[in-house]
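Re-run with default settings, no changes from the original entry. Doing this only to confirm the output is reproducible before filing.
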Amino acid sequence: MTVIAPQPAQFDCYVNAVPVFAEEALARLYGHVSSSMPYFRVFKSFANVSTYVTRNEDRVTCVLLFERHHGRVQVLNEGIGIDQQTIDQFAQRIFHKFPDVDLICFNQIETLVTDLSFPFQIHEVTENYIVPLPPTPMAYTSALGNATRRNIKRYMRKLLEDQPSFICRFFSGAQIERQHFATLLQMSEAKVLQKKGRFSIDPAYAEGLWKLARQSGFVSVAMVDGKVCAGLICFQVQSYYFAHVVAHDSAYDGYGLGILCCYLTMCEAIRRGGTVFNMGQLHYHYKVRLLASRHHLDRIVIYRSYQSGIGHAGCVLKMLAGKRIRNLKSWLLQHPDSMMARSAKYLLYRAHQLRSRG
C-alpha cells in the first residue's frame, strides 16, 4: 500500500458535514473499502461526522472523516496509509479548532510514526496481506514460485478430470445473487467451526456486507454440476480489490479448491484492470505462496498533553494492555502447534459456545 505524503497549502474542516466531493477523493486517495463512502453509508451514521480536508492548490490531498464525542475525536478512515506529517498536522489543527478535545484516535492505519508534537501511544492491532498485481494473468502466474505453479496446474487438472462440470464465474454489484452470497458465508462459517474457531460475521454484519456487495462487491462462484462448491466475497474500490470471505465445501478438500479459487479470482481481477489485491488480515501460508506481503496496521492515540493522558488513564491502560495482547497473539500465530496455542484456541471455542447457548 502506498503511503501518501501530501504537503498541504490549506485545510478545511466541515463540522458535522461530509462534502459531496469526499466520495471521489476518498476512492482516489486511499482505494480502501473501509475508507470508502459506500462502506460508511452501510456501516456508519453520519449524524455526528465531520470532515477534515487538505489541498495543494485546487487538488484535494487528504480526506479524514471523524466523530467528536465527549472530548474525543475518533477518525473513521481505516486500512489506509498515512504518514507522520499528516497525522501531526491533523492533531495540531484539531486541538486548535476544538478546545474541548484532548484525545484523538486513529484505528487500523498503516504508518511509521516515531515522533509527534503531542504525547501519543501506538501499537499494532492487525495486518493486511497485499499483492501488487502485474498487468496480465500470465505475468502473475510467471511470478509465482515453481512449486505453487505446479500445484495449481495439478489441482486444476485433477479437478477437471474428476469434476468435468467445474466452472468459476464472476459477478459484480447488482449481478451478485443473494443465494450465492449466503451459500459462501455458510461454507466459510462451517469451515471456521470445523476448526473450532469463532465465526466473526453475525447476521447483522452479514446483512451490511450484502448491502455493500450490491454497491461495490465482486464475487467469484465456483460450481460443480450447477452447485456452489467454493468462492470469494470481495469488494472493489477503483483498481483495488479486497477479499473478505474465502470459502469452499469440505468435500473438495483434496483439490486445493481454496487456493485455486483465490488464484482464479486474482487473475480475473487483473483482467478487469486490478492493480492491488488485498487478501485480508489473517495469516495463512497460501497467501504468501500467492505473493502476498504483510503490512501491519496500527492504532494511535494522541493526547493534547501529559495531563490529558492522566485524565484518560483508562485509555492509557487499555493501549498498554492492547500492545501486550497483540504481542501474545502474534506469538501464538507463529507457534500454532504449541500447547499454549492449542489451549487458547480451545478456550476461545468453548467461550463462544457458552455465549451462543446463553
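Residues 26 and 36 are 6 Å apart (CA to CA). The domain at 134-274 is CATH 3.40.630.30 (Aminopeptidase).
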